[in-house]
Amino acid sequence: MTDKTIKENAEEKKPLNFIEQIIEEDINSGKHKEIITRFPPEPNGYLHIGHAKSIILNFGLGERYKGKTNLRFDDTNPVKEDVEYVDSILEDVKWLGYDWNGDVRFASDYFDQLYDWAVMLIKKGLAYVDDQSGEEISANRGTPSKPGTSSSGRNRSIEENIDLFERMKNGEFKDGEKVLRAKIDMSSPNMHMRDPVMYRIKHAHHHRTGNKWCIYPMYDYTHGQSDYIEGITHSICTLEFENHRPLYDWFLEHIYETGKTKPRQIEFARLNLSYTVMSKRKLAQLVEEKYVSGWDDPRMPTISGLRRRGFTPESLKVFAEKIGVAKRENIIDVDLLEFSIREHLNKIAQRVMVVQEPLKITITNYPEGESEWLPAVNNPEDVSMGEREVPFSKTLYIEQEDFLEEADKKFFRLKPGGEVRLRYAYFIKCNEVVKDKNGNITELLCTYDPLSKGGNSPDGRKVKGTLHWVSAEHAVDIQIKQYDRLFNDEAPDSYKDRNFTEFINLESLSVAKNCKAEPYLKQAKQCERFQFERKGYYILDKESKHDNMVFNRTVTLKDSWKNKIFL
RNA sequence: UGACCUAUGGUGUAAUGGUAACACAGCUGGUUUUGGUCCAGUCGUUCUAGGUUCGAGUCCUGGUAGGUCAGCCA
After folding, report:
1. Which CATH superfamily is domain A275-351+476-562 in?
2. Model's pTM, two decimal places?
3. Catalytic residue among A154, A280, A453, A485
């Protein structure tokens, strides 16, 4: 068996999710020769990882089945939308590595067509102008268990409806004075079918159409028709639109022309992540109330936040693949997200040694004023990344937590009289602990074994611990921003009687200001990712200055030792 | 108490009427110049009660639990 056939078999074996099954059936049955999907954000906020799931799903389907994927802004509500959001969404989709089919599209491009179809529906007796107020419409809609009641507008003549709708368009009425409604069924058990509003009056400036319109179509009347115009075959959305599907189909039924593609709406369960919130409204609240520094705060589950945190597009795609696509409500363990980024960064990240809480050590038997440069592997997972050299000298820093004055045998880092390896350098032994008057340890006096250069002793003597270290005189000072989960509760917005902000983790950000890095790090480029050995993965922040380098901690390394300390 | 949807290890996702699988997390051990990586082991009466069938996680019926819907938001 060749590598290729093995790979193909492996791909064949991969189970299909329910959407892929539908698509394969549609292709096999000849219903569609080519599939077209779409990602349809409203430009009223920043994209989050839940959107990433949807983007990866839709564009992934396009790639997998050699079809196309459109990017369309669902911009039917001018008072909430803005070009700022259009720009950030475009950036996020591109960063994820996707290129949409043709130009970026806007639902607002279809306003003329939508208007013409609305007139057509009026002429067919399927839509009417209603002059009830919002409150009246709501009151007369009934409840899920009680049918609604018709308004007088429902019986208007076609001519009058056409006249009124045109006057709505011409701006003869104030906001809220009239709406256009579909004439369906006021007693339908599905609330969405009780004569839904198609158009409302909003004398508002639209980010694309300016002041051309003062009536704007509602989502339900816009989305399916936009899909239809673009020839979308599979219109994939989240579960809360399930109840809208009969309405989606109803509009399409009445404007459909034989021979055209009729899109099919398919719903899947949105992503929920543990220890965070995912609604645009709540994320906006975190920004507005300054719990975070902005939409791209590295603690935010936004795509821009994850990007700044150091996540890679690849890791997000692997994550999306692992969580799958189904219709069941879910809360994904944030551990799985962390696993995905660790897995990728482990393969690609340059290793480097950084001491975050320095403890000075002096190698008493090392010559004063001298230093030497020792080779260090850049990435043990990828030897093609080569080696670099790290400077060693008489005065070094190690991590405070790597020394314990009174340690049990399970602690195999440095202790008085104990020997450890300094990675890529020498074995050292701690002979004396220097303290200040308050009893705080200020320095360790150690000796090194010159024969153990590189990290192995010729006498075959073993040492259990290996520490990272930095030469004091060569050290580069850097800052590290350490992020933890934003909430202390697994599902902060799942409580009916408590506000999600009550669960905010007040220690989600801590800054280590006095970190010592090996000199190699000086050449780090903006947004470059590293593994600081034994600690975690870090990215040089996009706003970092050359003389004041700031790294964001993407994720720690897995630490099976830490877990045991608390036992 | 209307309509629609969902129910499989701690968390997700598979199994398309024929031995419940994979990943993550947890726990045990092994390897290791990162307590990382890697490797091995371990963790389930498929919500429930009936029914169909030689055979049911899968099909049927009833129940239970959860979700969605009463914006001129999307």
Report:
1. Ribosomal Protein L25; Chain P (2.40.240.10)
2. 0.96
3. A280
